[in-house]
């Protein structure tokens, strides 16, 4: 998940010089607005620590009588071990299967009964649960969520039914989806020791052999108040909210957490390649380079910011470099995408993925991508290109704060990576200081073959039932 989503218009890069004065004006207009937003955010955000280790963050936003209530556990697929992949996601499902006070399936019905919406999601780095309700109903959903933090109680029969649902989810979302299969193989090939090499949903064999006790052990290991952050945003009074949290979450007992081993990824020594054969309509290509991430306590490290902006220059709007050259001009690919997560707990990749155009080859597509990258490395980027990205980062951040749920999401996700919510504005400010030369420098330093993994999808006829994967390292 990106800390900041990039949303852009469709102005052609070749016309950027003519719009630079307008962009500079927008930049100057956005900066005071951001400064005002920063001041309000600091004044309206309150952090507390309960005696049991639970962190509470309250963001006041009184524009509408609604509240977002989120509980974040720092326990994701990165914390899993071989043979038990997918257990974090399995436990997310089982959290809806009852406590001594709430029967299986009742949690969602009770939230709906007070007019709320709720859901949960599992990530590589965390698992989170949320409800959004009218402010007078916060007490109701908090009582429910706090109950299952300490008193989850599901039986083997409920587990047996739910694991079948999860295996079917894997079949539909991954095994029947060629793009997902390609990404899964890419991650498994790129990483050697990091748990990021495993899919969040888990390997099918691990799901088939998982038992209810595995999910219970995961719950006992990680679902403790001293491994959780509660984020509440909306039309609330912080002191009243604190008292409510102390009432419901305060009785939860802190537990000793498992030791987290660092699992440092060994240096890559050359190009890795993997080929996936699966039913699909077209060739697909993914190229992923090992790159640094932003680390807590190192907010002055310019390289992650430069990589984030490099992704924007290449694929930050409809007519960015890769789209303009490879899709519209050369027509070597049908679509192309760049991904990079600057904020995470584990090692990161800078990935370019594309669907190859009919009649074109993987070699042609890869050569075309390399051509765009080589030109950028040799000639750099225009100041107007970079300014465009930075202006939209500012404006998008301001618009994002119109969403009560979006504010809670941003706070929770950055806290899970080991940062503080107070770092959000500092990170955005640092992004504005990056120069075109720094963006060019990270491209030259990191988008090289020694840290590259290439994944290719070889499309098979739709009636092909078997999926095969083969790989090699140069």
UniProtKB/TrEMBL annotation:
<comment type="similarity">
    <text>Belongs to the peptidase M16 family.</text>
</comment>
<dbReference type="GO" id="GO:0004222">
    <property type="term" value="F:metalloendopeptidase activity"/>
</dbReference>
<dbReference type="InterPro" id="IPR001431">
    <property type="entry name" value="Pept_M16_Zn_BS"/>
</dbReference>
<dbReference type="GO" id="GO:0006508">
    <property type="term" value="P:proteolysis"/>
</dbReference>
<dbReference type="Pfam" id="PF00675">
    <property type="entry name" value="Peptidase_M16"/>
</dbReference>
<keyword id="KW-0645">Protease</keyword>
<dbReference type="InterPro" id="IPR007863">
    <property type="entry name" value="Peptidase_M16_C"/>
</dbReference>
<dbReference type="InterPro" id="IPR011765">
    <property type="entry name" value="Pept_M16_N"/>
</dbReference>
<feature type="domain" description="Peptidase M16 C-terminal">
    <location>
        <begin position="214"/>
        <end position="390"/>
    </location>
</feature>
<keyword id="KW-0378">Hydrolase</keyword>
<dbReference type="InterPro" id="IPR050361">
    <property type="entry name" value="MPP/UQCRC_Complex"/>
</dbReference>
<dbReference type="InterPro" id="IPR011249">
    <property type="entry name" value="Metalloenz_LuxS/M16"/>
</dbReference>
<feature type="signal peptide">
    <location>
        <begin position="1"/>
        <end position="37"/>
    </location>
</feature>
<dbReference type="GO" id="GO:0046872">
    <property type="term" value="F:metal ion binding"/>
</dbReference>
<feature type="domain" description="Peptidase M16 N-terminal">
    <location>
        <begin position="57"/>
        <end position="201"/>
    </location>
</feature>
<protein>
    <submittedName>
        <fullName>Zinc protease</fullName>
        <ecNumber>3.4.24.-</ecNumber>
    </submittedName>
</protein>
<dbReference type="Pfam" id="PF05193">
    <property type="entry name" value="Peptidase_M16_C"/>
</dbReference>
<keyword id="KW-0732">Signal</keyword>
């Amino acid at each position: 998940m990106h800390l900041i989503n990039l949303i852009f218009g469709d102005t052609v890069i070749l016309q950027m010089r003519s719009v630079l004065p307008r962009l500079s004006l927008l930049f100057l207009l956005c900066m005071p607005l951001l400064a005002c937003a920063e001041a309000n955010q600091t004044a309206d955000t309150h952090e507390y620590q309960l005696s049991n280790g639970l962190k509470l963050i309250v963001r006041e936003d009184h524009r509408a009588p609604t509240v977002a209530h989120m509980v974040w556990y720092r326990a994701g697929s990165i914390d899993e071990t071989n043979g038990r992949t997918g257990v974090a996601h399995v436990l997310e499902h089982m959290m809806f299967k009852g406590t001594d006070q709430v029967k299986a399936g009742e949690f969602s019905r009770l939230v709906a009964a007070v007019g709320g919406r709720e859901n949960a999601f599992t990530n590589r780095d965390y698992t989170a649960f949320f409800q959004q309700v009218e402010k007078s109903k916060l007490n109701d959903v908090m009582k429910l969520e706090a109950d299952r933090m300490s008193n989850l109680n599901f039986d083997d029969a409920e587990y047996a039914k739910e694991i079948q649902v999860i295996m079917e989810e894997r079949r539909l979302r991954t095994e029947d989806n060629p793009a997902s299969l390609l990404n899964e193989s890419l991650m498994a090939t790129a990483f050697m020791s990091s748990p990021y090499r495993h899919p969040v949903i888990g390997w099918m064999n691990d799901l088939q052999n998982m038992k209810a006790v595995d999910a219970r052990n995961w719950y006992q290991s990680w679902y403790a108040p001293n491994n959780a952050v509660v984020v509440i945003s909306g039309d609330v009074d912080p002191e009243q909210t604190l008292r409510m949290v102390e009432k419901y979450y305060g009785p939860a007992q802190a537990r000793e957490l498992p030791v987290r081993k660092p699992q440092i990824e060994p240096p890559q020594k050359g190009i890795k390649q993997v080929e996936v054969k699966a039913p699909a309509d077209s060739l697909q290509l993914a190229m992923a380079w090992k790159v640094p991430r932003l680390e807590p306590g190192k907010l002055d490290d310019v390289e992650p910011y430069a990589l984030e902006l490099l992704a924007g220059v290449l694929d930050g709007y409809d007519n960015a470099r890769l789209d303009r050259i490879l899709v519209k001009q050369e027509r070597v690919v049908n679509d192309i995408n760049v991904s990079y997560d600057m904020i995470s707990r584990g090692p990161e990749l800078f990935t370019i993925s594309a669907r190859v155009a009919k009649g074109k080859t993987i070699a042609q597509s890869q050569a075309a991508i390399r051509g765009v990258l080589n030109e950028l490395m040799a000639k750099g980027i225009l100041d107007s290109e970079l300014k465009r990205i930075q202006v939209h980062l500012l404006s998008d951040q301001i618009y994002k704060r119109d969403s009560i749920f979006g504010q809670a999401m941003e706070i929770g996700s950055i806290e899970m990576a080991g940062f503080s919510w107070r770092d959000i504005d500092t990170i955005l400010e640092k992004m504005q200081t990056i120069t075109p030369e720094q963006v060019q420098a990270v491209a030259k330093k990191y988008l090289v073959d020694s840290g590259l993994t290439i994944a290719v999808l070889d499309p098979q006829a739709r009636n092909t039932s078997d999926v095969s994967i083969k790989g090699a390292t140069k």
